[in-house]
Amino acid sequence: MVATTWSGIDNDGRSFNPTRLTLARERSGLTKQSLADQCQVSRRTVSSWEAGEVENPPVEIIAKVVGFPESFFYADDPVRIPEEGVTFRALSSLLARQVDRVLASASLAIEFSRWMDQHFTTPSADLPDLTESRGLEPAIAAESVRSMWEINQLPIKNLLALLEKRGVRVFSLPVSEREVDAFAWWYNNRPFIFLDTGRSSERMRFDLAHELGHLLLHRQSRLRSRLVEQQAHDFASNFLIPADALYAQVTGQLRFDDIFKLKRYWRVSAVAMLQRLWHLRIISEWHYRTWIIELSKRGYRTSEPDGIHPETSRLFRQLFDLARQDGWSISRMAAALRIPVAEIDSMVFGLAIAPAPPDTPAARASSEAEFGRLYLAK
């Protein structure tokens, strides 16, 4: 922790940064009034702190209230992500404080992403540019991406690893923010996704594909509508379960139990599989309605019994393994970023303080073959 003086300057000669106070307060979910109450000052005083009208606010007290180290308040201006630049699905049902909290998490994720790129050679962003194809049908877009990435008509074994290999930074939503749902945004030509890891593995894969649809189809759009969400949904369905492959796979009359064989093959939920079969007119509306009732009775509307193993970040596993070899403990990372260790752990799928993955030649070869390899930055 950097020692501070009452002159409002830290030992590195940096002045107190009021924008950092706003970010920390929003990340902590505090209003100006609640921060004022806990600091035993007036709301007007907090407003003065955040407006930069006070050179030497009581940083030690503020830091304890918001849960950030004192050094955090002496760093450069943070990246602030505009609300309209993020693909929130449930925005109408969210409180302003919830939106502020999750956008603050996204700002911290960008700072962590910058730190990664400063110290390691990581995959660069490699998503196809569909901006010139405005109005492109989601099904055609999904088919095009599959072809460009040479997936063709095969199931996607590990979607999270695939996106990370293509330079998408996928972070996990903090547990306290899971009501927000997954969302995506672009920053400096780098695509980002925040993923809710509290869902079933199959639902997380669909969320990833849905947000990929937003990144590709709506990069230049700031509109939020049911149509935009439906387009992302249609992209995800076509990307995970290509129509031609499914038509070729189903050669006879389907039975109800066939849903489970198909959903395991394509690594999607039973409900998503059933909906895909209906939308492609492989089954009748009667079968769809009858079978969705049966799936509900078996608990498939709220969970995924006997689901697949969760996908987790290959990028972060390799990052922390290589960082440890280079002398970077998680506490040292947090100190460099001037944030709590828990903030890092909450955004990296809990891998920051988890045991290291098995370090065997076979494990390394398997990971690198499917994902690629990180290197120390020169």
Task: Give a short summary of the structure.
By secondary structure, this protein is mostly helical. Helix content is 49%, strand content 5%.
Name some characteristics of this structure.
elongated, disordered N terminus, 5 strands, 378 residues, 3-stranded mixed β-sheet, single chain, 17 helices, two-stranded antiparallel sheet, mainly alpha
How would you explain this protein's 3D organization?
The protein has 378 residues and is mainly alpha-helical. The chain contains 17 helices and five strands. It has a three-stranded mixed β-sheet with strand order 2-4-3, sandwiched between helices. Strand 3 and strand 4 (190-195) form a beta hairpin. Helix 8 packs across helix 9, helix 11 (258-266) crosses helix 12 (270-279) and helix 12 runs antiparallel to helix 13.
